[in-house]
Amino acid sequence: MHIEFAQADAGVGGEIYAHFDQFFTSFAIPAKGTANSGKFGNVVLTKGALLSLPIIPSGHLDVFAAATVTCVFDSLTKRMAEIDTSTHGVS
After folding, report:
1. Could you report the average pLDDT of every consecutive run of 10 residues in the chain (91 residues)?
2. What's the CA angle centered on 30, arms 27 and 31, to 5 degrees?
3. Which DSSP symbol is given to 56?
4. Rounded CA separation 18/74 (Å)
5. What's the predicted TM-score (pTM) here?
6. How far is CA 47 from CA 6, 58, 78, in A?
7. How far apart are CA 42 and CA 32, in angstroms?
């Protein structure tokens, strides 16, 4: 799987306090494996630093994330995907 773009917003009570987005040129996750994208820089505090301070005592943030993924199949991986789908009941 190749990840092209990732973004996330974080906040409390439906109000967004932080946002980041990141493009990738070559971030691939091997089949049945894991990968580390590294640290994300340039996180924007959407309300500024001072107005974000009151959320610290809550001790939690709700995170909303999305990723743009490109999947490339050859005949072997397509067949394996069909087998996984049929044995696990995924559609």
Report:
1. 86 91 86 86 92 90 81 56 48 38
2. 145
3. G
4. 39
5. 0.62
6. 21, 17, 46
7. 30
